[in-house]
TrEMBL record:
<protein>
    <recommendedName>
        <fullName>Lipocalin-like domain-containing protein</fullName>
    </recommendedName>
</protein>
Length: 147
């Protein structure tokens, strides 16, 4: 094969999209917020009154924020919903994540402030509905489970 033909073929392959982006080669359970492979395991949701936990509702709940702005919601490790989400910066420069799971018992504002903090050797995710102080929105807590 001549060099000009070889370079022409290489150029053709580069134009046809043979390259993979980092998003293409990440596993499906790679979480953007944690920047690791795993999921956020639900610890509980509190409102100005009722509190819900896996024990009180009878199922566990897992979240995975994927690189393509999809939130994978699982209940008891079974696929439940795929939801669009959006990251942004809210009032006061606080990071927000916007999504709606349409869950009656665990309803929360679509826009949630989020914070990831280390606690007792674990990584914690805290979500607070943007209007929690006004509309009794929920305060959700999760811990990171690395896979």
């Amino acid at each position: 094969m001549t060099k000009p033909l070889l370079f022409a073929l290489l150029g053709l392959f580069s134009l046809t999209g043979c390259e993979q982006s980092a998003d293409d080669i990440r596993p499906a359970n790679y979480d953007v917020l944690a920047m690791e492979t795993g999921h956020w395991e639900w610890d509980g949701t509190s409102f100005f009154g009722p509190q819900y936990t896996p024990a009180s509702v009878g199922y566990s709940r897992q979240l995975i924020f994927t690189a393509n702005n999809r939130l994978l919601l699982r209940r008891s490790n079974q696929a439940e919903q795929v939801i669009n989400y959006q990251l942004a910066v809210g009032a006061g420069g606080l990071p927000t994540v916007t999504f709606n799971t349409n869950e009656a018992k665990l309803a929360n504002s679509d826009v949630k402030y989020y914070q990831i903090t280390p606690h007792d050797g674990q990584q914690l995710l805290q979500l607070a509905g943007e209007g929690a102080a006004f509309d009794a929105g929920g305060y959700e807590t999760y811990h990171w489970v690395k896979e």
